[in-house]
Design a protein that fits this description.
The structure is a homodimer. By secondary structure, the first copy, chain A, is of the alpha+beta class. Chain A is built from 19 helices and eleven strands. In chain A, strands 3, 4, 5, 6, 7, 10 and 11 form a seven-stranded mixed sheet that branches. Chain A has a two-stranded antiparallel ribbon with strand order 1-2. In chain A, strands 8-9 form a two-stranded antiparallel sheet. In chain A, a hairpin with a 5-residue loop joins strand 4 and strand 5. Chains A and B meet through helix 9, helix 10, helix 11, helix 12 and helix 13 of A and helix 9, helix 10, helix 11, helix 12 and helix 13 of B. Chains A, B: One of its GO terms (molecular function) is oxidoreductase activity, acting on the CH-CH group of donors.
């Protein structure tokens, strides 16, 4: 299996050289997060992920979770690793100090999350879901709820879940059947069945705090009648837990991947629930969790992609097979290492370009998340607008390309890639859930194009394209990057035009939105990565000109940017053609004629 | 799990209406294969695959093969199913009547093979490898070898394997270490270890006939020193088997998919081997098997794609989720079936367009295989040339798109797609081996562009593009398809031009071939499917004009062709850009700088 090494150099390149986190931390009052402290945290996190989590990744996949009579057992070593995670204070790294957290910026939490997910995606699900639940309680819970739940979750003593999906509905939450009946003591009796609940039951924590969507008996139909409840596995008592609540795990799923993550059927049988936020506003509260979770899910594309790349590069340098077409490169060996072959390099560079591009996109987005805490309201609003536009793109583009990357990594290994012990196929399987959950990528695309872009009359897109426009204007005719700047400017203009055309068409026929959505999102993703690759390349060029010592690192950035513009960015043409095709060719075939 | 129904209507459309197999059967003297007989065989094959093989597909995946002390046990039911397969005469359907076969055309065998592989890909590996071994013995074996081995294999009493790969080499067969030492009795003592041997050991047949690549002690280095040997598990004796030979299974692999197919490490310890063909010409003999196997592997992309499509269409018609953006479509239900949503249709139509296009490509190619038996030498030569060009495209394009198709099928199911019991994720895992084995798709691409197209100074490509040219000329300005004809003609011309440019560049730098190869192959695949989709659509249009009763079937062809041209064929633009990018952006990064 590939041995994970946290890509600290690339992380620091983004944190220090591209996005200057130190400076932006200062603007949000996170002065504690000095470069020294950030470095120390990154190194400590890397050590933990490399030495504790990564070694449990293959065994966790082979062993999986086990279910017996409502009890779920995680694979060997997970319990101890989680205890170390909690003791190390990782759960509360970016949480509110008022409830025991360290109050460091969210962007730093995301970087640590990248390491965790790259070392062991399944393990990362347990803190990942907890962080989502903490975000919702933090934003919508009462002070008492925060004191009770947030503090324990911050400690890692209690973990969290999101209970949305039911057997008959995932995307369509308006039709959920779980019911919450008001009780005399102000609590609710929650009854129903939820499925696909990640971390719904396990042996890692003392208590599990379920955030459950349910309907009151008199709730309006559809999404406007959904409320959110805290339903703990054990009711809180004193400093710890008391009575067992009426919620239990009915079974766990057997899945393609992330096998060490328990995916549970959860049965609620008049379980005691506590309303969080307002009645019938549950979906809004849940969106807080979901926005958090969507970026986290996008990260999984990067995480699995990074792990796969590390394995593939190592293998490509070691595996000897055939001679280079331009002449023998390793005369002392029976064949050349396969990294000499152009097609192997095509796969490796595709992986590298997506991974490093996706990392830039994620950190760029995380920096905006930090800015939601800016004292300057205009900064907060700007960040909010950009996040609305970027979040569905992060989720869907990073996971689509994550699946592509892990498949390339496996392909580099040839037949060995298909064999479990090498660990490359696990990364494909683990990565494959990410385009599905937290809203399928098709739903992300509708959110982007329908709700965000067209729903704001283009404003949410313009906020971003204006930034790119200014960047292109400032660099037109750049000595080293003139052609790439011109290409980026062309795509930028094209994006505005095609958005306007879709908007016009959609006024006549709403199916035009659904017909264009996924290709539109992918177009945006390629375009945004182009922008970020150029920003990275320009900095790398400067560093080389300044005589930086790590010349190889910076030259790799330049070469990868060049590769990206020449071989990946042109995919926008195919997506554009699909967008322009409109809805007719999708909608004209009657449903009954899809099968002969 | 998706219930498999053989797509007989679509098969007949190609066999009868598009390619007129009856007429071409007559030209190769296969007059027995009358339309009635062909139909009867297809229906019998469909029944067997639907009722016997398909029900073993999920259980075979869950159970896998088991190994204990050199013995391999296949999953429950496989032994009985294989006995039925053999008794039904399916093994010898297209084999030489001189050795017990039914002598029907290869194209018919391929259609049956499609059903077998769609119903149960793992099961299909056992007859698939046997057919490959039979092809090699048939082409290169002595009369005595044919009498001994072919007859038993035709009966299904004995099965076959291809033993090429060794731990240190797969692609690079020139460096194999397995040795064959001549013995006094004219046989050879074969020693060495072969890995990834599909059907290398199992409990389905009385004997297993290994075709093994090995080197004589005095053989020249590299691929010119490889010979091919028959090494049976049991030495033949009388009408059956005698002494156990010195070959045994050391272990089986734990794989991502095709788990019911035994992938074996085979140890040869002075095993008695019999030379097949000439000394040091083993690779040529193996190519006979490999060409056969490459089309068969390409078919696996279609097989898994078809099974996935059937599951996805059914689910999309049944699963209720959200309302259509253009208004409620199923007012009596809590939500509309998801097939109303444009993005779901995008996935389904992508699947349909690739599957039916790939089926057309496979049957088109199979018809050429039949023509290798034409009494007319010019016909044989023409077929050989086209096959040389098409075979690597079938293998790589059909498997790349097969992986895409199965992933769409899984995505249509949302979260349920990731759960094993639904069977959709198995199809992704089973399909994923096909781009790897029988020569990775990267190797197929090099074979196509380097060996075939440039190696023939473009002649092997021209034979095909001339056919398309004539088709476009004959249909320029067609009342219904003028724009598609024009687009096809443009791509045809572009293919010639870009090939010439690569050829020029490759004279200066051989890496230009490897840099362009995979995108070149994919470009060719999209282009060829465009040609075949147009041929299908034009026939469908005629049938509608003639008032054919199955109007829905033909209209689906028109709609899918339209979809293909509007939304999939434009991907050629991205591949063209990647080809035109040349090798520089791939080769300039030093190997040591791929990692930071």
């Amino acid at each position: 299996m590939p041995e994970y090494k946290a890509p600290l150099r690339d992380m620091r390149f983004l944190i220090d050289e591209v996005f200057d986190f130190t400076n932006s931390y200062a603007t949000i009052g996170a002065d504690d997060a000095t470069p020294d402290m950030v470095n120390a945290i990154l190194e400590e996190g890397a050590k933990f992920c490399e030495q504790v989590l990564a070694p449990l990744n293959r065994s966790g996949d082979e062993e999986g979770c086990h279910y017996e009579d409502t009890v779920v057992t995680t694979p060997k070593g997970f319990k101890e690793a989680f205890a170390q995670y909690a003791e190390g204070g990782w759960m509360g790294l970016a949480s509110d100090p008022a409830y025991g957290g360290q109050g460091l910026p969210h962007s730093l939490g995301l970087v640590i999350g990248e390491m965790v997910g790259s070392a062991n995606t399944s393990f990362g699900m347990y803190p990942g879901l907890t962080h989502g639940a903490m975000a919702a309680i933090s934003a919508h819970g009462s002070e008492a709820q925060k004191q009770t739940y947030l503090t324990r979750m911050t400690e890692g003593r209690w973990t969290g879940t999101m209970c949305l999906t039911e057997p008959h509905c995932g995307t369509d939450l308006g039709i959920i059947k779980t019911r919450a009946v008001p009780q005399a003591d102000g609590s609710y009796a929650v009854s129903g069945t939820k499925i696909f609940i990640s971390a719904g039951e396990h042996d890692l924590s003392e208590n599990i705090v379920h955030l459950v969507l349910a309907k009151l008996p008199d709730a309006p139909a559809g999404t406007k009648g959904i409320s959110l409840f805290i339903v703990p596995k054990f009711l809180p008592a004193g400093d710890g837990i008391g009575e067992r609540n009426g919620v239990s795990c009915g079974s766990i799923e057997h899945k393609m991947g992330i096998k060490a993550s328990a995916t549970c059927v959860m049965n609620f049988d008049e379980a005691k629930g506590f309303l969080i936020g307002e009645v019938n506003k549950g979906l809004n509260c849940m969106f807080t969790m979901m926005n958090h979770a969507r970026l986290g899910t996008g990260m999984q594309g990067l995480c699995n992609g990074e792990a796969s790349y590390q394995g593939a590069v190592k293998y490509a340098n070691e595996r000897l097979q055939m001679r280079s077409l331009t002449g023998v490169k390793a005369p002392d060996k029976p064949a050349d290492p396969i990294i000499v072959h152009p097609d192997v390099r095509r796969m490796l560079l595709t992986m590298k370009a997506f991974n490093e591009g996706n990392r830039a996109l994620a950190y760029f987005t995380a920096q905006l998340l930090d800015q939601l805490h800016s004292p300057d309201e205009s900064k907060r609003q700007e960040a909010e607008g950009l996040l609305a536009f970027l979040t569905p793109i992060c989720k869907a583009f990073m996971t689509e390309t994550g699946v592509e990357v892990t498949n390339h990594g496996m392909q580099v290994f040839g037949g060995h890639g298909y064999i479990r012990e090498w660990g490359m196929e696990q990364l494909v399987r683990d990565a494959r859930i990410a385009p599905i959950y937290e809203g399928t990528n098709g739903i992300q695309a509708l959110d982007l194009l329908g709700r965000k872009v067209l729903g704001s009359q283009g404003k949410l897109m313009l906020a971003f394209t204006k930034q790119v426009h200014r960047f292109c204007e400032a660099n037109t005719g750049h000595a080293d990057f003139a052609s790439q700047i011109a290409e980026l400017a062309r795509l930028n203009k094209q994006l505005g035009e095609v958005t306007a055309r879709i908007g016009m068409a959609a006024m006549k026929n709403p199916d035009e939105v659904g017909a264009a959505a996924l290709d539109y999102l992918m177009y945006c993703g390629y375009f945004i990565l182009g922008y970020l690759w150029l920003r990275m390349a320009m900095i790398a060029r400067e560093k080389i000109e300044q005589g930086a010592s790590e010349r190889g690192f910076y030259e790799a950035k330049l070469a990868t940017c060049d590769f990206y513009f020449k071989r990946l960015l042109p995919r926008t043409a195919a997506h554009l053609a699909a967008i322009e095709a409109g809805s007719e060719s999708l909608m004209k075939l009657p449903a009954e004629h899809f099968s002969a």
